[in-house]
């Protein structure tokens, strides 16, 4: 059912026929994706709770939050340009001065949009 | 009035009476041993904090919906995926891989690989979430995404002990994610590029804000430099999102090796 031109055409003419169609194979694939996602999301904490964590391993777990944040940000900012770096700086400064995450986010996003228009 | 439905933990040693004596046994996490509650106030706080960010995430949901409809998924199928898989990056990559016949193995393996970083992120929440009942832990984690993980980490570290924060913020994200998917699949290509409004920068901004709060003096420097170097190099060399997992793991490994000299 999926991907064929005829179905797309039908979907345009009678939206609800095409829109609500559920191909059994597609549904099965989606559910399989959902299952492995749940395993990925819950697996880490499941393991940590089951295994007796030594002080040594605990020290490693303690640096995880910061390390993950840095690991997500690093390549993201490296791939960006002056507009993104400027936006990040605005977030840092506003966060530091006001400690309001919402204000920091809004100023950061507004700054990026402005910087992109200029740069 | 606090809904203290479950301050209890599944670990016997933490049950109320034993709690006080246990606290001093863990010097490294002493400051994080406030009671963790699971109630409506935490749920609501998480939900409300996350709504503005969920609005931005909705931008990605629209993008996902447009992509999904372009590869031939129906509105019902795309919506089902957003409602059950609920993992933005993995879903967008999946519809990019989607062809006829469906590459089933590649889709499932890629989804798992892209989402493996959540294992690490979930483990990082263990000091707080770990004190709730398994049902609460695992149902909350099913609604974990990058954005609400960051917000929840921030809330836990502030010492609020609101165990339902992750679930509340996850519900906000889920609602906007599913609704925007429907919008994207129905509206199709008529919706413009959400990045025009800086939507792509929201996640970066959330993490920059978090970085300011997670900085913990000189001891943070070495693992962060290692995480940064590893992730930047790995992002160059490897496809997908392995760089997040590798960056986190190498930093943790460094600490495991460095521990006690």
What descriptive keywords fit this protein?
A: mainly alpha, disordered N terminus, B: 261 residues, 2 domains, 13 helices
The count of strands of chain A amounts to 0
Q: Report the helical percentage of chain A.
A: over 70%
Note the beta-strand portion of chain A: under 5%
| Number of H- or I-type helical stretches of chain A | 7
Kindly estimate the percentage of residues of chain B that lie in beta strands according to DSSP.
under 5%
What is the structural class of chain A? mainly alpha
Weakly predicted, low-confidence segments of chain A: 1-15
Tell me the domain tally of chain B.
2
Could you explain how this protein is built, in words?
The complex is a heterodimer of chains A (119) and B (261). Chain A contains 7 helices and no strands. Chain A is mainly alpha-helical and 119 residues long. Chain A has a domain at 68-118. Chain A is flat. Chain B folds into 2 domains: 40-214, no CATH class; 217-260, no CATH class. Chain B contains 13 helices and no strands. Residues 1-31 of chain B have low confidence and may be disordered. Chains A and B meet through helix 1, helix 2, helix 3, helix 4 and helix 5 of A and helix 2, helix 3, helix 5, helix 6 and helix 8 of B.
List the helices and strands and how they pair.
The complex is a heterodimer of chains A (119) and B (261).
Chain A: H1 5-13, H2 15-19, H3 24-50, H4 55-62, H5 64-79, H6 82-98, H7 101-118
Chain B: H1 16-23, H2 40-70, H3 75-84, H4 88-97, H5 104-115, H6 117-124, H7 126-129, H8 134-142, H9 146-157, H10 165-187, H11 202-214, H12 218-237, H13 242-258
Helix pairs in contact in B: 2-3, 2-4, 2-9, 2-10, 3-10, 4-5, 8-10, 9-10, 9-11, 12-13
Short description:
Chain A has about 120 residues and is mostly helical. Chain A is built from seven helices and no strands. The N terminus of chain A is likely disordered.
